[in-house]
Structures are given as structure tokens and as C-alpha cells.
Amino acid sequence: MNFGKMGARCGFGSAGLLGWASFPVGIIGTKFGPNGGGEGDGLSGDASHTAETDRFRIDMPNYDVELKWVEYWNGYIKFNGAAEANGPNAILVKAAWESAAGVLTSFYDADGTTRVVTLQPGERRRLYPASKLIIPGASLPYIRNRVSVGSAGQQWPANRIAHGSLNSMGESNNQFGTGAGTDQVDFTGEFGTTSNKFYAFGPCGIYGIPADRVRRKRIALFGDSMCTVSGVDGTPNYGDTNGYAGYLERAINSNYAMITAARASSRLQWVVAGMANQLALIGPYVSSAIIQLGPNDIFTGRTLLQTQTDFTTLVTALQAYGIACYGVTVTPRPLTTSNSWVDGGATVNASAEAIRQSYNTWLKGLPVGLRGVYDVAAAVEDQARPGYWNAANPAWTSDGTHLAQPAMTAAVSVIDLNILV
């Protein structure tokens, strides 16, 4: 399995390098979420719209980890269309780690002395802790991030705070680079309280090794809103009590480290149109990938062959890194937006439903070397009426697309973490 090669850097003590040559660095915690609500704190934003400081809470896995670096990207994932784009101008980044007890550890460039680094458009940069940094398992530390630009006419990538998680890869929501403003936030206070506080700047990934040098599963999630939200998650308290939203995040919880490359409305079509940075940030550092993408392709007119081809492209790219890949069957999406699926009054798009069923059958045949498939659709739809949600009261869906609590419980029960590697 290819986990990538790690190199030594200047300015890092021998204790910090211990185990680098013999133990692969991987994702250790990129689920940015609330602990009982509120994704983080906007600490400051200046009146000139040229700087902003944010602080995000991190849900760590339930084992101690040694943090090696965090990585920032001056680029973003588009809300629709080809997935990746560069930022329009250079940005300055400064960061620090804040323990659950409030102790700060500064991050530096590879030279070990530079605290504020410049990222040119499209550039990725690693920042390293000043000394060996052990993070207690299941703790709730923070990461502080300050981003600035040279003038009010410039912008920086805005990660979209939504559905209980900071989208690890960044998301533009069709606002970045439009000239509407330098940034999307520029505020102080807690996220999630008003609609204009869903955007902030943060790292794309946090990397390290288990402190005990025991290999553990490290999981990447590729998906849409079904991956990171449900019908029981709402502003501002997305997710469960630890901020895990969507059935995949809830199933994994703090058992293993994960990175979420998912956002609302995402499609396989868009991901494979531009995924070089996502692969670079994820590929060498995870052992398993769960791909929930596909619903928005099928229900927006993509053909069965197109959806299969795009799925194959993504899986093949991940497998090139030695990642074990797993699929998820596509759940129903009745046409109605009322609660009529409870009493059987919903209708379905016959052509899309036929593609959904064919695609699910194809997935369950383990194409492209899939290691497994989570048949979530079978757990939540009416087996007597394929294409319709389980007709139950309380309803299994709140909007015809996303999972309400009964369906959430059923879906989580399908996600067997033991089959992951």
C-alpha cells in the first residue's frame, strides 16, 4: 500500500522526526465540528476587509496522535462545474494549535523560523509545529488560522461551514472571486447563528501518526449532502452531540481519523473534472475511501454509463495510491416535496429511478475492484415499492432526499467499519 514518502525538514528536533522513516504519516483529524453546536469562533475581521482570524474545534479520534503538519491550499472547490480552481491572488497565512486546555503551539514554515507564509494562487503549503506535539485522544482542541491579503480588492479561499463540518477541501459556493467582497465572513462570534457566517478559512488537512505507532484505519469520505447532513441536522446545531452529521460520519465517529471531501450538490461528474489537489491532499494519507457520490448525477439527468464511467475514474485514481475503495447505494428521491411519502402519495421519475436501480445493482456486483458496498438504499426504502422511502410514521425523510432519524439509525447500522482496511 502506497502511503507516500515523507522527507525530513529543517528546524525540527530529532524527537519530532522519531518514527518518520518507519511509520507512514496519515490523516489524523480533519472533522471540524461542533461539540453540542457551533462550528467555531470567528475571532476577528478587520474593517479594511484584508484580514481574518478564525478558530475551529477539532474532533480527534479516540487515540493519542503526534501531529506532524497541517496543509493549506490557495485554491478551492467550485460549488458546481469542474471541481477545482486556483485562488485569484496571493494570500498570507499564519496558524497555531490550541490544546483543549488553551495552550498554544505555533506553526512554522519548513525552515523552522518563518511564521507567516505566502501562498501563491493554487499553491499548497505545509506548516509544522514548533516542537513535538502529542494530542490526547478524543480531546477537543482548536486550530487558529489567520489569513490576509494585500488590499481590499483581493480575496482568499473561503471554506464553507455547513452540515456540521468544515469542508476540508474548501468550497466557493459560487461566491469566491466574484468581486462581491474580499472574504465571505469578516465577523466575530460563533458560526451557525446567521446565514452569512458559513464561510471561513482553514487548513485542508491535519497529518500525523498514532502516538503508539500502531497502524489504524484512516478514512476518506467522498460524497454530497447525504454524506454530511441529514434531515435531523439543522442550523446551528448540525450533527450529533460531537458534531458528526450524515450517516457516514456518525458511523465512523471518533473510532478512526477521517477526512471529508464532500459538499452539498456534489456530483461524480464534477469531482472527476478536477481532483488533482484533492488526490494530493488525501491519496497518500488514507487507507480506505467510501464513495457516496452518484445521487446528484442520476437525478439531474446523467446516464447510467456516464455515472458508471465517472465512478470508475474516481475509484481508479484512488486505487493508484493503494487505497481500498467502497461504494454506497443510492437512496430514493421521490418527486414530491411534501410529506406524502408517508402515506404513499409520492411519485417518482421513472427514468431516473430505472437508472438508480441499475446503478445500485452494478455497484453491488463490486465493479472496478471495490472492496465492499454499503447497501444503504435497501435499509431505508420500501422493499415493496422501490423508489419510495419506508412508509413509516415518524417519516424516514424530512424532504424526500435526506434521512430523518429513523432512516439515519437504519443507515448507520449498515456501515460496518470492520470491512475497511
Q: Mean of residue pLDDT?
A: 77
> What's the end-to-end separation, in Å?
11 Å
Q: Which CATH top level class of the largest domain fits?
A: Alpha Beta
Overall shape: globular
Structural class, by secondary structure, is: alpha+beta
CATH fold title of the largest domain: Rossmann fold
Tally of DSSP β-strands: 22
Structure characteristics:
5-stranded parallel beta sheet, 10 helices, alpha+beta, 421 residues, 22 strands, single chain, globular, 2 domains, Rossmann fold, 12-stranded antiparallel beta sheet
Brief rundown of the structure:
The protein is of the alpha+beta class. The chain contains ten helices and 22 strands.
Could you walk me through the main structural features you see in this protein, from its secondary elements to its overall organization?
By secondary structure, this protein is an alpha+beta fold. The chain folds into 2 domains: 14-206, no CATH class; 214-419, SGNH hydrolase (Rossmann fold), CATH 3.40.50.1110. Helices cover 19% and strands 24% of the residues. The chain has 10 helices and 22 strands. The protein has helices at 14-17, 225-228, 246-252, 268-273, 276-282, 295-298, 304-319, 350-364, 376-380, 405-414; strands at 26-27, 40-45, 51-57, 65-73, 75-77, 84-86, 91-98, 104-108, 117-119, 124-129, 133-135, 142-148, 159-162, 165-166, 189-190, 199-200, 205-210, 218-223, 257-262, 288-291, 324-328, 372-374. The strands form 4 sheets. Strands 1, 2, 3, 4, 7, 8, 9, 10, 11, 12, 15 and 17 form a 12-stranded antiparallel β-sheet that branches. Helix 3 crosses helix 10 (405-414). The longest helix has 16 residues, at 304-319. The chain is globular.
